[in-house]
Specification:
By secondary structure, the chain is mostly helical. It is about 65% helix and about 5% strand. The protein has a two-stranded antiparallel ribbon. The longest helix has 24 residues.
């Protein structure tokens, strides 16, 4: 059932610029076409950055594989979202279980990206909490299977970092945030010039 465009317009007008940009860059895939059209009109009405439209478009249409691979390569050279360093390639890992498929989250919070040093710090923290969780529970044997799986995931992540190669979750991370990353890349290219 199509939503009333006037109600959508009113709803978007009440939202902050920041929230409108979050929807445009991360959540468009979840919207009906009427809501996307009203969102684009609201972006225009507010005079928000025009590259937001590119972020919307890429979420709706996707990227051809060569373009996606180029975006992945660009992202690996981007500044670390944790510490800002640019001198080592970024990677991404999953820490914890995926949210359930019916979750209302637009971005998987268990997927994190960073430079090798930041990811190693996160790995050490995850490893300590995995061991501590197993040792402090009175029913530790029940959690042992999960702990072993978590430790195997941590070992795999450490191997990826040692070899300095993209982890399997990197493509998933970029895909989940493709609208925001395309806009960031456009802005980066604009700063660098033609």
């Amino acid at each position: 059932m199509p939503e009333d465009p006037n109600a959508l317009r009113e709803n978007y007008r009440r939202l902050s610029d920041r929230r409108i940009q979050e929807i445009a860059l991360l959540e468009v895939r979840e919207l009906r076409s009427e809501a996307v059209q009203v969102l684009q009109a609201e972006i225009e009405r507010r005079g928000l950055p025009p590259e937001l439209h590119a972020g919307i478009e890429v979420q709706l249409r996707g990227l051809a594989d060569p373009d996606f691979q180029e975006l992945l390569a660009w992202f690996r050279r981007a500044p670390c979202p944790e510490c800002g360093r640019r001198d080592t390639p970024l990677n991404a890992f999953r820490f914890g279980d995926r949210p359930p498929p019916d979750s209302e989250l637009s971005v998987d919070p268990t997927l994190v990206a960073g430079c090798p040093d930041c990811l190693r710090g996160m790995l050490r923290k995850a490893e300590r909490s995995t061991y501590a969780g197993c040792l402090t529970l009175p029913w530790a044997w029940i959690g042992l299977g999960r702990t072993m799986r978590d430790l195997n995931d941590l070992e795999r992540a450490e191997a990826v970092l040692r070899e300095n190669r993209p982890g399997p979750e990197l493509a998933e991370y970029v895909h989940d945030r493709i609208g925001a990353l395309v806009v960031a890349r456009l802005r980066d290219l604009g700063r660098q010039g033609p």
